[in-house]
Amino acid sequence: MTMEELRRFSLPDVGEGLIEAEIVRWHVRPGETVEVNQVVLEIETAKAVVELPCPFAGTVRELLVEEGTTVDVGTPLITVATGEAAPAAPGGDRVPMLVGYGAMPDATSRRPRRTPPPETGNGGRAAAKPPVRKLARDLGVDLAALTGTGPRGSVTREDVRRAAVPEGRAAVPERETGAERERIPVRGVRRHTAAAMVRSAFTAPHVTTWLQVDVTAMTELVTRLRGLADFAGTRVSPLLPVARALVTVAGRNPMINSSWDEDNQEIVLWRRVNLGVAVATERGLIVPNVKGADALSLPALARALTELTATARAGRATPGDLSGGTLTITNVGVFGVDGGTPILTPGESAILALGQIRETPWVHEGRIAVRRVATLALSFDHRIVDGELGAAVLREIGAMLEDPLLMLAWS
Fold first, then answer.
1. Where do the H-state alpha helices sit in 126-238?
2. What are the tens digits of pLDDT across the range 161-199?
3. CA-CA-CA-CA dihedral for 14, 16, 17, 22, to nearest 10
């Protein structure tokens, strides 16, 4: 007779530094049979929606977390009854399981380990889980100054979020007694984006500089590229030459492709350009990036941008797609506006915004003519990029868009 054993599958770290995820949808129910590597649920992390496969076969006994719940890495998600016990190591201990799952602990009663009460208050280290500590860092909250309301006086996420709202300011202002309203939970990608934007806006001193550019020649180039066989099956838009110009100028001005290391008080210059592209999705704004964009030919860059944006809009961007960016571009013109003041992606020193291309009266070769004109906006970290360099970078980008031949000369 085969001994049945209950095994649990816990939330693994599916990306770089994942600390929590929301359970989006279960694909199985108690009583159903699962196979090894069968997808059993979908989770939404701070960066993407990810399908999780079960690492063992058996019968589902219990779903331990409801849909819509946010849990920490290591939280048990599901129990599965397998047909045989896991092998035991010498001495009777179980063989260590891979990250994300393991055997259910036995039912033997154990005396809780005595631990000293957490140090809080003046001079002490506040008790808080790693996810709570990260949230406090993101929101600029001093944990040592908080009085925890959690078990044994530990600091909770709610404690940190309350401290992040200035005293006397309501999170949502009351307009009138009995006013109708709706509260929308902020989770997953949108919550991560909000925290990242707050961290960036209040950490890096932003400066934005603007430039109007005659992009008539650039739009004519785009039209010609669409007819070439090398670009068949790809979406050739004005974003392509703008992206190429940004990558080119980064090679000529390395400081805009860099990061500020606060701990070591150093500027980190990146050898490759991992070009981030801001993409609006149903779940919020995400910024996947093209790895090594500076090393790609123009057709290869066009394919990479096409595939990346399609993957992002379909909700299939992976944590790898969404991490490691060094420089970002955002096309706000698709929303029908002329420009904006883009916020830096945390850890980057510059972001370029492209406004809508409009037919505009313009002085061209000494005469007023109708030309296609766009506004560029470059935001940069003033700790790394000073005003002179920021202006020079934007002028060079504008020059390449006015005369695309310069992209070849400067590459």
1. 130-139, 157-164, 188-201, 216-226
2. 778 765 555 555 545 555 677 877 777 667 777 777 787
3. -40
Strands 275-277 and 327-331: parallel
Q: Which amino acid is at 33?
A: T
The residues that are catalytic are 382
Structural domains of the chain sorted by starting position, each given as residue range(s) with its CATH number in brackets: 5-85 (2.40.50.100), 125-163 (4.10.320.10), 205-410 (3.30.559.10)
Kindly provide the residue ranges of all beta strands, DSSP E only, lying in 154-282, ordered along the sequence.
206-214, 258-261, 266-269, 275-277, 279-281
Q: Distance (Å, rounded) from C-alpha 199 to C-alpha 193?
A: 10
pTM for this entry: 0.64
- Angle between helix axes 216-226 and 239-252 (nearest 10 degrees) is 110
Contact 256, 247 (CB under 8 A): no
- pLDDT digits over 257-278, tens only? 999 998 899 999 999 999 999 9
N-terminal to C-terminal alpha carbon distance within the chain = 71
